[in-house]
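Sample pair:
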Amino acid sequence: MFELIRVEEPDETLATKMLKMVMPYFETHHNLKLDDDVILESVRLAKRYVKERKLPDAAIDLIDRTMSVVKMMGESSKQEITNLKAELETINSAGIASSDSNLNSNDEKELMKELKWFYNDAKNKVSSILFSQVEEEKGVDHCENIK
C-alpha cells in the first residue's frame, strides 16, 4: 500500500533558488543564456497566472517554453531575413537604376508604394520582436505614412 505525501509549494525566494540550480541545463539545451531577472520574473508570473500548477514546476515550464520559442524564432527567421534582404536589394537596385534616368512623380510614387508593400510584408513575415530589433539597429523609419 502506498501513502500519499504532500509537499507544500515553496515560497518565491526558494523557488528562485531552485530555478537558478536547474537553469544551466536549460541554457545548455536551448543554447541561450538567461539573466537572473528572467528567473525572478518567471517565478512572479508563474505564481500569478499559472494557478493549476505549483512552483517551481510552473516557472520551469514557462522558461522552457519561452526559450523554445525564442530559439525556434531565431532559427526560422534567418532564412526569411536572407530572402527579405535579397528582395530589398532588388527593389533598391531598381530604384537606383530608375533614379539615374530621372524618375518622374508617378515612378517615385510606384517605388514608394513598392517599398511600403515590402516593409509591411517584412513586418508580417518576421516576428515582431526580431523586426523591432532590426528597426532599432538600422534606424528604419516607419513607412505607414507613405501614400
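The chain is about 75% helix and 0% strand.
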